[in-house]
Specification:
Elements lengths: L4 E3 L13 E3 L5 E8 L14 H18 L7 E9 L3 H14 L7 E6 L9 E9 L3
Parallel strand pairs: 4-5
Antiparallel strand pairs: 1-2, 3-6, 4-6
Helix pairs in contact: 1-2
C-alpha cells in the first residue's frame, strides 16, 4: 500500500494532469533517486534523437532504481523531467510518456527544457523522490 497522498489544491487550475502537492505521514523512509538517464545496461545512450524512446528508457531505469530501494512508482512524491530542447513539441512528447506511466499516480512534476544533459546524445533525464512506509 502506498504511503503517498496526492493533493488537488482548490484555487489552482483543475485541468492540470498532475497533483499540485504530495504528502506522507508517519515514519516513512525517504528515497532520493539520481536522475534516471536513457542508458542501457552497458551504459550506452539509447535511441539518439528520439525523445519518446529515451523517456521510456529513463522511466524503465527509474523503476529499476525504485525497486532496488524497496519502492514503486506509487511511492513517488514528485518528479522533475529535463529535456534537452528548445522545441515545445519535444517537451510534450516526453510528458506524454511520463503521464502515461504515472496514469494511476499523477504525482506533482516539473517539466523543463534545458540546454544540454551529461551523456553524449542524451535528450531526457528524470529525477524523482519517494516515500516508503516502514515495514
Amino acid at each position: 500500500m502506498t504511503s503517498v497522498r496526492l493533493l488537488d489544491v482548490p484555487g489552482l487550475a483543475p485541468t492540470a494532469p498532475y497533483a499540485y502537492a504530495a504528502t506522507t505521514t508517519g515514519d516513512h523512509r525517504l528515497v532520493q533517486l539520481a536522475g534516471a538517464c536513457p542508458l542501457d545496461a552497458d551504459g550506452r545512450t539509447v535511441s539518439p534523437g528520439d525523445v519518446t524512446a529515451q523517456t521510456t528508457q529513463c522511466l524503465d531505469n527509474l523503476v529499476t532504481a525504485l525497486d532496488a530501494a524497496g519502492a514503486a512508482l506509487t511511492d513517488v512524491l514528485g518528479t522533475r523531467v529535463l529535456v534537452a530542447t528548445t522545441d515545445r513539441g519535444d517537451l510534450h512528447a516526453a510528458w506524454d510518456v511520463v503521464q502515461d506511466r504515472f496514469a494511476e499516480h499523477p504525482v506533482p512534476s516539473t517539466l523543463l527544457g534545458v540546454t544540454v544533459l551529461g551523456y553524449p546524445d542524451q535528450l531526457v533525464e528524470i529525477e524523482a523522490w519517494a516515500a516508503v512506509a516502514p515495514g
